[in-house]
Specification:
The chain is mainly beta. It has one domain: N-terminal domain of TfIIb (Single Sheet). Helix content is 11%, strand content 31%. It is built from one helix and five strands, in the order H-E-E-E-E-E. The chain is globular. Belongs to the UPF0434 family. Pfam families: Trm112p. This is UPF0434 protein GGR48_001888.
Length: 55
């Protein structure tokens, strides 16, 4: 399942407010600057720091 490009352009890391990289294989949005990966569940990005995985 791919993420809508329009949505991806508008989402930013809630910690650093920097753009995110979409990792389609892992179904995550990666914030390189924060060192976090936010999961995408059922096509919906979960932008909660508590749910993010440390890189």
């Amino acid at each position: 399942m791919s993420l809508d490009p329009w949505l991806l352009e508008r989402l930013v890391c809630p910690v650093t407010r920097t753009p995110l990289r979409y990792d389609e294989a892992a179904q995550e949005l990666v914030s390189e600057s924060a060192g976090l990966a936010y999961p995408i569940r059922d096509g919906v990005p979960v932008m909660l720091v508590e749910e993010a995985r440390e890189l």
